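Suppose a colleague, Dr. K., hands you the sequence of a protein chain of 364 amino acids and asks what its three-dimensional shape might be. Before reaching for any lab equipment, you can write down a predicted structure in token form. Begin with the sequence itself:
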Amino acid sequence: MPHLELIDVSKDFNGVYAVISMNLAVNEGEFVCLLGPSGCGKTTTLQMIAGFEAPTTGRILLAGRDITNVKPNQRGLGIVFQTYALFPHMTVAQNVSFGLEMRKVENAERERRVKKALDIVHLTEYKERYPRELSGGQRQRVALARALVIEPPVLLLDEPLSNLDAKLREVMQIELRRIQQQVGITTIMVTHDQGEALSISDRVMVMDKGRATQYDTPLNVYENPQSPFISTFVGKANMLKGTALIEDGKCFATVSGMKLALDIDLPDGQRPSPGQELILSLRPEKLRFAEPGRAYFDAQVKEKFFFGSQWHYTVVSPLGTLMVLQPNDGRQAINIGDNVGIGWGESCVRIVPDLENLGIVSAT
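The predicted structure, expressed as tokens, is then:
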């Protein structure tokens, strides 16, 4: 039985649905990210779990108990807000202790739990400091300690890293995952950052326009996107239109007159039939340069951009304009105007399923 479950949950704001028929099952100890663009309904979903918003329809279960109509302060959930919401007049220790005081936990037990929480987030030596004396990352960890100290059944994180600079954000992603695994707490985090969701989650729920479009492991969401939206929102993708071709039991697609081998690791009933129109996804980091005439086809480099760890190229090819990402591994960069061969490994061209035809909930 899932530790936390949403069953057909919807939220209607004066005739406008922010969340539509959301179904979500989270196992105990699991880290799940709600991922999507602004306005997709992910924060509203988190607020319904927390109890700050009441669902228009549907039920929310925690450890098998219906908490749909339970008040927020009676759910016992730990919450970390985007702004951290620390009390500026209280020290680190006092901020962390506040929730226990409200629950009338005895002094000795309160001190033990505060010390444990500060140890977990590596802030014991800062316990007498005030929030204004801390860095952004330290304030974020205080907020996390304050949520953990009450020993909640579920931890809810609302874009907790969005106010940090890029370098600190990357460090805190690793730290957040370390703490979650150390404590073993069931965690749900809202984010619009694809890299963040993929790097620290056990599973990712991708949302668009109020609907759940795919719920899977980070690897499967990235490698087997279930819609064109997911292909382009979760990472970068070259999207191609083609027609299915079956030869000797193998599946191909014809795109702009070229025959491309397809990844056909699809469930029964989802494999294409001859002549079927297809939407294809080809990730730009899967493409590789070769000498002209020694790959699938030749192309000409139109643009290049340097991102430190990698080069981002735009090439003009028989398939149209393609993105190509290449690691900055010490090899000399390709120049604009150069002719290059373009190739890729087996099973890199993926079929993007048609959601409506497959009976999967549409994102529109």
